[in-house]
Amino acid sequence: MSNAATAQSNLLIVDDEPNQLLTLRDIFESEGFQVFTCQSYEEALQQSGNQVFAVAILDLQLHGHDGIDLLRQIQQLQPAMRVIIHTGYGSFHSAKDAVNLGAFAYVEKSYDPAELIHWVHRAVKDLLSEALSHSEQKFRELLDDVKAIVWECRLPQHRFSFVSQQAEAILGFPVQRWIDEPTFWDERIAQEDRSRYEAFCAACAAGADSARDGDVELRVVASDGRIVWLHIVTHLVVDADGNPTMLRGAMFDVTHQKVSEQQLRDMEIQLEHVSRLTTLGEMVAGIAHEINQPLAAIANFAVAAKVAIANDNCEHSVPVESWLETICNQTENCGQIIRGLRSFAKRGHGDQQWIDLNQIVRDSVNLVQCNPHNQFAEFVCAHSDAPLTVFGNPVQLRQVLVNLLQNACDATRGRDHPTIAINVAVGDEHARVSVRDNGSGIAPAQQAKVFDAFYTTKQEGIGMGLAISKSIVETHGGKLSYDSSSDGSTFYITLPLSNDSPQTDAPPQEHSLS
């Protein structure tokens, strides 16, 4: 506080007796004070307005003025100043009035000035004590406003001697635990960072140059179990011989920064993954295109061979014609698969058109069922042979159905009697396609993340299928939902019907595609 130095030296004495003033001035100058003297009420007010005083000694009677009234006036000018009433006409009532108005002491005049000297020194100490307390309060308020844990610990024991209140706000533990419990801080540090922290402590205790003004980042467990990242900046205090005695520093909560950095790294990895998948999709489309040519040639030559054999009218010991017929059929099946792959791999565009939802379902089931890895399951479709016309993008809707069907196959793999049921139903305003499997269902802990991008429970999965499918269905104005239990899962694609779309009321038929 700026008045602290002044409080040790400036003393105002107000008395209308000149000899008394001279005597008191000599006494207190010998005590080390800078003394200012006044003989009148008006002069005392003027001095109090121009100069800061630690203590004022006021006579009670001042040529027609009351010392109590002067006390009142100078306290308004300098509230921190300690005022001592010094009078030869003391009374109980005047002493009571002085104390009630805030006088520090009430001393009667005598030949021995010891009591007055005692009270003046005591007043100075009281002023300095208040100034120190005020300074400490300001310092603590400043520390509490700083968004960091300011601390000090003794070496080599690493015992905390001071911790700011921000420790409680950041980590949730009472500050006193840091100071009272020797192992409190060490036990808060995450297991993964303890060896690094121990190495840092050893460097501090040894007075290493790296620890004199160093920093370290640690993960700490908060009172609610959260992991908090702290960036710790330290300063090492050494004695005259260079031995470490104290470690001081500040801990900054950088959890948000660390989480943001990790999210950025995850996004970069995800983007790289998507880029690889895009390249792979383009390669698949190109390969499908190239394979389609030799398949067409195989089919043509098989047909030509079959015609040539038929024209020769020769009998064979083996069913060559049947074999050629099988080659033709299998080649056509391969061609259908490749055409489906090419269509599926095409980049989806925003153009929408009237499409037959039943046909989309049939194409998707055929595409998934043609995969040899999926032929263990029985596919049961309940839909109408009549067109069910909706407005949408056929490539994108086929992508959604293929993804749901493939997930159903993965869910039923290894189950007894694996069955996948596909149903198409029509309501007043919506068409709904359901895909049900008899797998083990989705675990409750995983259900909230089912549609999250890059979340997957499959060892070889990438976690994008359902996220993309949900986005596609919502782009069509519909909704992708599900329910799941230990008996299996059912996913629902709900799409809006247009009043302009021609619908039929033909009853659905169930087709077993096992």
UniProtKB/TrEMBL annotation:
Keyword list (alphabetical) reads: ATP-binding, Kinase, Nucleotide-binding, Phosphoprotein, Transferase, Two-component regulatory system
MF annotations from Gene Ontology: protein histidine kinase activity
- Any keyword Nucleotide-binding? yes
**4-aspartylphosphate is carried by which residues?**
D59
Tell me the ranges covered by the PAC domain, including all copies.
214-266
Name by which UniProt lists this protein: histidine kinase
Please name one Pfam family that this protein belongs to: Response_reg
* Organism for this UniProt entry: Stieleria magnilauensis
Q: What class of enzyme is it?
A: transferase
PROSITE patterns recorded for this chain?
Answer: HIS_KIN, PAC, RESPONSE_REGULATORY
- Which parts of the sequence are annotated with region: Disordered? 495-514
Q: Per the database record, which ranges form the Histidine kinase domain?
A: 286-499
Q: Which CDD domains match?
A: HisKA, PAS
Catalytic activity line of the entry: ATP + protein L-histidine = ADP + protein N-phospho-L-histidine
- Which E.C. number(s) belong to this protein? 2.7.13.3
Q: Show where the Response regulatory domain sits.
A: 10-124
